[in-house]
Structure formats: structure tokens, C-alpha cells
Design brief:
With 258 residues, the protein is mainly alpha-helical. The protein is built from 11 helices and 2 strands; from the N terminus they run ββααααααααααα. Strands 1-2 form a two-stranded antiparallel sheet. Helix 1 runs antiparallel to helix 2, helix 7 packs parallel to helix 9 and helix 9 runs antiparallel to helix 10.
Length: 258
């Protein structure tokens, strides 16, 4: 290893003037070394800047995600959509952002936009049953009953003991606008299964079952089941109106048979 020697030159006022000698090393070589050190220094400075920039972007991204989540919980769907959209713009392959924005769109009754978000979710995770359910709900609102049924059926394949999925299928068969699409038998089959899986503790499921009984001509069962739904949600005006409808049918039948 060569030794660099610092030699003091001059005297008096100039006695603090130094030069260095490196035996056997030319000046051009020393210039190259200094240049290399400068390049290395610049490289590490750039790395530092890059890390700072990455860190800033990451924290900005996390802020958008957290703000979106907070807004969704507060049912501030407009703000949730804005924040999740900004997060997606920064990181377009994060499945949860599309899923949550899709829910916000759905809750805002923007079914077309929600449908597109759940499309993306399903591309990224074809086995997420809840994404099929939400996309089915969007398509049901849009009047695409066949597509909705396909989504519910796929969700049921992935999660066969989900009471809500059975209920969605039953409700679709009960309430579809097109008469040819309705299926009384399948509506009753799926609504019974939903009630069984939920242990009759879900009012919406019991309401669907009551309707399925009614359209199948089992009016007494419809009344009994609607009363069970009302015990769970005693202030639900929609349930009360249906109960009156069913009781009126019984009264009409009694008059006919009198």
C-alpha cells in the first residue's frame, strides 16, 4: 500500500502551506481517484433523494387510503370515492381500494361505476365471493337479471353456506321485473335455506321467505313468517304493509268461501 506523505512547505507566513506526495503515483491518477469519489458521493446523494421521494409518496398514498376508509365508515361516500380514486391512481393494483370504492359507488347508487370496480376485483381475485355478490346487486339494479343470477350462482359455488347469497337469489326470483324470469319454486327453496342458515334471526331473510310463501299460495305461512320478521324489526313499515296484504288475501278468501 502506497503512503501519502504531507510535507510542510515554506516558512514564516507561509509555513502552514502543505503539499502531499504519493511516491510512485502520478497526478493524473490522483485526479481520477478524486473524480471517482465525487461520482460515488453524488450517487449516494441521489439515493437519499430517491428514498425521500418514495417515502413521501408512500405516506401520501396511505393517507388517501385511510381517509377513504374513514369516509366509508362515516357513510360519506362522495369523499370515500375521491380518496380511493387518488389511491388507485398512485397504486393501480391494490384490490382493496377497488373493492371499497365499488361499495361507495354502489351505496351512492352509481351501479355502472361500481360494476366496473368489481370487475377489476374479480380479475385480481376470481375467488372473492363477496365481489360477485356486489356485482350481482349492481346488475340486479340495472335490470340485468340473468347476469345478476350468474354472479350470485358463482358466489354460492365459492361459499355455499352463505345465507345472504341464498336470500339474494330467492329475492331475485321473487321480484324480477320479467315474469318469465321469476321462479316460485326456486324462490321458496333458496329462501328456506337462507332462513335455516341464519337461524331465523335475520328480518330481511324472513321477509323474503314470507314473500316466497305468499306467491306459492301458502298464505298462512307467509303471515306467520312476516310476523317473525316484525318481531325482529317492529318499526319496519314495509314489513307491516306486506303483512296487511297477506291478511287481506286471507279475508278475501274467507269472503269467497262464505
Amino acid at each position: 500500500m502506497r503512503c501519502i506523505i504531507f510535507q510542510q512547505l515554506g516558512s514564516g507566513k507561509n509555513k502552514n502551506f502543505y503539499r502531499f506526495r504519493c511516491p510512485g503515483v502520478s497526478l493524473s491518477c490522483l485526479v481520477m481517484v478524486v473524480s471517482l469519489l465525487m461520482v460515488i458521493g453524488e450517487y449516494f446523494v441521489k439515493i437519499g433523494y430517491a428514498n425521500d421521494e418514495f417515502s413521501e409518496k408512500y405516506h401520501t398514498y396511505k393517507d388517501f387510503v385511510q381517509s377513504g376508509s374513514a369516509s366509508l365508515q362515516k357513510k360519506d361516500y362522495a369523499s370515500a370515492i375521491i380518496n380511493y380514486s387518488k389511491a388507485i391512481e398512485m397504486s393501480p393494483f391494490e384490490i382493496n381500494n377497488y373493492y371499497n370504492r365499488g361499495i361507495a359507488f354502489f351505496k351512492s347508487r352509481k351501479e355502472k361505476e361500481a360494476d366496473e370496480d368489481f370487475d377489476e376485483v374479480i380479475v385480481m381475485d376470481p375467488r372473492m365471493s363477496s365481489a360477485y355478490v356486489y356485482r350481482g346487486l349492481c346488475r340486479e339494479r340495472l335490470g340485468k337479471h340473468k347476469d345478476a343470477l350468474n354472479d350470485y350462482t358463482k358466489a354460492l359455488e365459492l361459499n355455499p353456506n352463505d345465507a345472504a347469497i341464498h336470500n339474494n337469489i330467492a329475492y331475485l326470483y321473487v321480484s324480477a321485473n320479467h315474469e318469465n324470469f321469476r321462479d316460485k319454486a326456486k324462490a321458496l327453496e333458496h329462501s328456506k335455506k337462507a332462513a335455516e342458515l341464519s337461524k331465523e334471526k335475520n328480518a330481511e331473510i324472513l321477509d323474503t321467505l314470507a314473500r316466497a310463501y305468499f306467491i306459492n299460495g301458502q298464505v298462512k305461512e307467509a303471515i306467520d313468517t312476516e310476523n317473525k320478521a316484525l318481531k325482529l324489526e317492529p318499526y319496519n313499515d314495509e314489513f307491516k304493509a306486506k303483512l296487511k296484504e297477506y291478511e287481506k288475501e286471507v279475508a278475501n278468501e274467507a269472503v269467497k268461501n262464505y
